[in-house]
Structures are given as C-alpha cells and as structure tokens.
Amino acid sequence: MPDIDHFRNKLVAAREGIRGLTDARNAATATVALDQCSVGRLARMDALQQQAMAHSTRQRAEQELRRIEAALQRCDDGSYGYCAHCDEPIDPRRLELEPAATLCITCAEKRDR
Description:
The protein is an all-alpha fold. Helices cover about 65% and strands about 0% of the residues. The protein is built from five helices and no strands. The mean pLDDT is about 85.
C-alpha cells in the first residue's frame, strides 16, 4: 500500500506548478496581429508558429491537470495506487515517477503493444 499522503503532496505540488504557468501560456497564445505594416511576413509566421506551440503545450497541461485531479479523487475514495485494469497494487516506484498513473507497469506495457 503506497503512502497516500506522500503521493497526494506530490500531486498537489505538480498541480500548482502547472497552474503557475497558466498566465505565461495564455499570453503566448494571444491572437497574432496580421498588420503587414507593423510586422513583417517572417515575423508573423514565427509568431504564428510560437502561438501554435504554446497552444499545444496548453492542451497537454490541461490534460495533465485532469489526470492529476483524477488521481487526487482516487486518493480521496481509496482507490489510489491500484491498477484500473487488473486492480492489483501499482508499484510505489512507478507512482514515484508518475504519481497520476492509473495502470500497473504490466497493464501499461500490454496497452502500449
């Protein structure tokens, strides 16, 4: 049985770290001005590319926040640390590396094949 409080603290810290980057990400995904007089074509293309990368990063962060929130919910309902597929305990070493993991390493490897 994993130390739930230890992993809850890791999850909360990860959640706060992701949330702390939200403002910077939002600024980076702001609408790019297309005024050719004020910005050259290459600069606009570069800005659009940076905007697309920031948008992708934001989507990944939102997905990770959902995984963290789900893991915190499992901490609360007593199902944290058990594989969602086989219901066996997830090795604490795996949880140490990926606190929001839902599958034991065996089931995760089967899924990835």
